[in-house]
Amino acid sequence: MTIVTSSIAGTVADSARDRRRRPGRAWPYVTPVLLLLFMWIYGPALFTGVLSFLEWNLTGDVGGFVGFDNYARLFREPEFGQAAGQTLLYAAALLPFSTIVPMFLAIMLWQKSGRASTVYRSLLFLPVMVAPVAAAVSWRFILNPLQGLANEIIGFVGLPPMNWLGDPRSALIVIVLVTAAKVTAFNMLLYSAALTALDRRTLEAARLESATAWETTRFIVIPQLHKTTVLLGILSIVLAGQWVFTNVSVLTQGGPDGVTDNVYYRIYTLGFEFFETGMASAAAAIVLLFFALAGLIWVLLRRISAHR
Amino acid sequence: MRTVNHAAGLRTRSRAATGTIAWHAVLLGVILAMTFPVLWGILTSFKPANEIYSLTPLSAHPTLEHYVHAITVWPVGLLLSNTFVMAAGVVIGQVIIAILGAFALAYFSPRYRGVVLTLLTISLAIPPQALIIPQFLMTAKLGWLNTEAGLIVPQLGSSALAVLLLLQHVDGLPRSLLNAARLDGARPFEVLWNIVLPALRPAIAAVSILVFITSWNDYLWPLLVAPRQIDTTVQIGLRQFETAEGTNFGGLLAAATLTSLPILIVYLVASRRITDAFLQSGLK
């Protein structure tokens, strides 16, 4: 669940401010979590950087230091550039499904309370529960070019059958839509949470001023969801490439002609299909650097806006 | 005057009725679009082989033949139990270290609390794909490829979310509760065991469900460390059947249904608690 956000830590840190320290040793209790964190997250992050300067193919002995060779080779191959571009494309394509669509669904559910709302909300959340591979198998069945349901349906309208996952025109759209169901479902719930915290008095005032439902939504509800929208939008842009990983792996393996590839899937194929450990590590190091930079900018922007 | 009011009332009422119909229509449409593929897959898994491409949703002759095939010909039962062992292992491991960590940070409020929180938060944002090469190498060096340890232990590094969620709850406990116990001479571990744990039970249940679902549906890590058909999880097993028997959709869909079944049952039983747990994980 990497969708999960960083806003938690802020709140937690605030509540600690007025907390008195208690006597006793904390380290026996914190050691396990810190040990595992360094062993499996921060250690590997550093290790990735080191590996990116070494020549190695995953088997046998580690080769020597090759400087920026792996990076140079990575940038020379056209696939990496394409994968990087596709990552941005996924971000753009998934953005409406992580903000606008779930926002409107949440508002609709929130406008009417009662049993129907609760039942709909549970059903809408189902895509988050279903195992991605199981969903992908169903999609494959529906989209299969021979007798798949998708082709039967477009056949009714008189369209010729399509090779949905093998055709560059449709493969990317399929990956985006399959992923979109899950993202929409999850973010709908987050918007619902934000709505429960909405200031009811403003709404009452609007009703007394005889604003229409649409006016209330447009001028009062949506602006109040602004924080959630910004947060989910940023998360979506940053994480979209990661979200599609399983679907790309199961449905298209990055094909046809790399149109569904992206940086994360490229790291995987470089490392575990071509055994180019050095190049895969270089790609991973670039991703880590990008995240470090993005995080730094985020922190700085927050500092600046807090001081204004 | 009266009739005018009456007419206006009628108009509003009929507009409200159209509104309600539109409301239901839109939501039902979205729900259908979002759940249809999986629903169709489940319905198909009960159709006999010769009807598998039929366009009628419910077969006149429903059958369990694909399930029998999936369970007897493919090691689906074994894969399900592997997945369960992995998910349960990750839940137990993460919850234990999260309870200890959250308790330490909340109860002692150590000076380095802020640093630890930052480290935990950053680890949530690091893309797992950027770490797979060293993580794989370490797992291989430890001799854990294709073992339960390999599936479970490396995933304990990602317990930041569990720690932060539980920390919110420990921080939320009334201070007098913890202080009273300390003044009574209770040692920290006794405070944790006798006071914090019982008070945290609902939160622990929610976090456990969250971790279980995430771990059950995990794909990337099992794909790397347990690629062999026998000792892997259902997610990876399913992928292998798919490549091996690409055209046997009946069996595949039955296996896919079995893959999601445990999670769906958990969801039916505790849907409220699950949505709450997911809500907490994302906001606050």
Written overview of the protein:
The complex is a heterodimer of chains A (308) and B (284). Chain A has 308 residues and is an all-alpha fold. Chain A is built from 15 helices and no strands. Chain A is globular. Chain B is mainly alpha-helical and 284 residues long. Chain B is 75% helix and 0% strand. Chain B is globular, with a radius of gyration of 25 Å. The chains are: A mainly alpha (308), B mainly alpha (284). The interface between A and B is large, with 108 and 115 residues.
Task: Kindly list the characteristics that best describe this protein.
heterodimer, A: 308 residues, mainly alpha, 15 helices, 74% helix, globular, disordered N terminus, B: 284 residues, 75% helix
Describe the structure in brief.
The complex is a heterodimer of chains A (308) and B (284). Chain A has 308 residues and is mostly helical. Helix content of chain A is 74%, strand content 0%.
